[in-house]
Amino acid sequence: MTEPEFSARGVGITRWPRSLTRAGEVRIEGGRLALLTSYGSEIDSAPVTAVRAGRPWFAGPDEAVATVNGTRYRLTLHGKGRDGGTAEPSESERPGRSGRSEEPEESGRFLAALKRAAGRR
Prior knowledge:
mainly beta; 1 helix; globular
């Protein structure tokens, strides 16, 4: 089994007007984005080329919005120090690999991983 390109646990996944899970998982693996519950059940998934994602001006630094199969989800990606989130940095984002002294925001890492997986720059 290959390692996912991006994986974050402890993610709040909301489909307005209700929360679907407060401790779900977002995974990019094999060219697909999957939104999972805390029990591992799939909420939604799609090829990364069909997913639209971004960070609206009103969103916090740990939030992103993703449209998967025509459904809009708000993702709250907590960093390691908050609410037990366990987002795993990629090899290039581990300490000592980049010139940055602080860890990148989880939502920024998610958006960058999605673009890389889709081949967009």
